Amino acid sequence: MTDPASLRQTVISEITDLLQEEDKPVPTFTDDLVLLESGLDSLGFAVLVTRLEETLGYDPFTEMDEPVYPSTLGDFVTIYAKHAPQHAQ
């Protein structure tokens, strides 16, 4: 899944599911949404990355030469798009 719109929707869907499971409010998702203000804590982000790895088949954070910590939703989606396997659909 390298289509940016589909990738973005998958990320948003997983974040929404996690927030709803924790009875937390779901924010309005824009590319400039600051991740630390999304309602997810560090454990929530770890669960998010694990779920996305199961869904997408890869974890871009383990494939990076240098660690990058995205600050916004747009940055987060860009990291996933940039590190998507070439054979992903």
TrEMBL record:
* Gene3D superfamilies linked to this entry: ACP-like (1.10.1200.10)
**Domain of life of the source:** Bacteria
**Record's PROSITE patterns?**
CARRIER
Carrier domain mapped to chain residues: 2-84
Q: Which InterPro entries match?
A: ACP-like_sf, PP-bd_ACP
Protein name per the record: Phosphopantetheine binding protein
